[in-house]
């Protein structure tokens, strides 16, 4: 399917690895020029070069922490106007409800709620002026079904979800859509570190923890970054103009419900 977005420009945050990288590759395959961001310059430049080699699109990199005002200012300076924004950042650490203090919540809110909101505030006006735009926020399956040890994530992402629910309906008449893409477990560094935490907690090996995790999913496996990226690219396509304020769950059927 031609996604109809060849020649458009996208900012993909936190995209040197994992799900952000999957989204960047899929958008590049659709002919989209990219601005990629992550904190570590080396992996970021390596991903950028792999994308240039594979798809021949223009890729600009900005090494910066997207969760800080200074980092975002650096990214936005290099970005200018874009047609597509994919919001992403690292997830907060796991823990226990009684351990989290105010500062832990502030960090989680900065990373997973206020950073994407600030980027939308900066970039939506340009999309509205052009009469076309797409925003996809990478959130988490924990928005639908809480993961108790990820309480910081559950809390911050619920805030972003509420913001998107209202704002998406305010900008839709300008041809701009905002939706959230909710990953269940996907094969990334983050998934490995979560499996390692399970292994340490339960006194089993990493392989055993990963096998139990895979068996618990209806598909018998976890998702891939390229499957995730392809879904994101569709949500950024010309065909998704009537998809507004949705929370698209990509979890292999792990969330057990009839509707
Ligand atoms: P990942 O494999 O650890 O990759 C994270 C990427 O984000 C890296 O490129 C990293 O590069 C970049 N990054 C992290 N913090 C950043 C920051 N402050 N500023 C700029 N870039 C930053 O993670 P992932 O699995 O793709 O997860 C992406 C998001 O989806 C996370 O919020 C995670 O909680 C959520 N999620 C993931 C899964 C899953 O199964 N993978 C499931 C549910 C939710 P640098 O470290 O160099 O900055």
UniProtKB/TrEMBL annotation:
Pfam families listed in its UniProt record: adh_short_C2
Superkingdom of the source species: Bacteria
Sequence similarity: Belongs to the short-chain dehydrogenases/reductases (SDR) family.
PANTHER family tied to this protein: 3-OXOACYL-(ACYL-CARRIER-PROTEIN) REDUCTASE, NADPH-DEPENDENT REDUCTASE BACG
Name recorded for this polypeptide: 3-oxoacyl-[acyl-carrier protein] reductase
Protein's organism: Pseudooceanicola nitratireducens
Taxonomic lineage: Bacteria, Pseudomonadati, Pseudomonadota, Alphaproteobacteria, Rhodobacterales
């Amino acid at each position: 399917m031609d996604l109809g977005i060849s020649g458009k420009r996208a900012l993909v945050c936190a995209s040197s690895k994992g799900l952000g990288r999957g989204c960047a590759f899929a958008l590049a395959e659709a002919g989209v020029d990219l601005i990629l961001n992550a904190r570590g310059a080396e992996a970021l430049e390596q991903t950028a070069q792999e994308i240039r080699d594979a798809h021949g699109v223009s890729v600009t990199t900005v090494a910066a922490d997207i969760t800080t005002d200074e980092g975002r200012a650096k990214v936005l300076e290099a970005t200018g106007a874009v047609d597509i924004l994919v919001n992403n950042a690292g997830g907060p650490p796991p823990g226990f409800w009684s351990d989290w203090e105010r500062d832990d919540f502030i960090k989680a809110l900065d990373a997973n709620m206020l950073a994407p909101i600030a980027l939308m505030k900066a970039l939506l006006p340009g999309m509205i002026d052009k009469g076309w735009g797409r925003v996809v926020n990478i959130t988490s399956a924990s928005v639908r079904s809480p993961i108790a040890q990820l309480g910081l994530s559950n809390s911050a992402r619920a805030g972003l979800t509420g913001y998107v629910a209202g704002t998406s309906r305010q900008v839709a008449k300008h041809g701009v859509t905002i939706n959230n893409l909710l990953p269940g477990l996907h094969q990334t560094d983050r998934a490995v570190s979560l499996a390692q935490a399970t292994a340490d907690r339960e006194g089993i090996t990493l392989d055993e923890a990963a096998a139990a995790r895979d068996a618990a999913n209806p598909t018998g496996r976890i998702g891939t970054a390229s499957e995730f990226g392809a879904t994101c690219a569709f949500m950024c396509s010309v065909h998704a103009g009537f998809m507004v304020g949705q929370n698209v769950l990509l979890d292999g059927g792990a969330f057990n419900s009839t509707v």
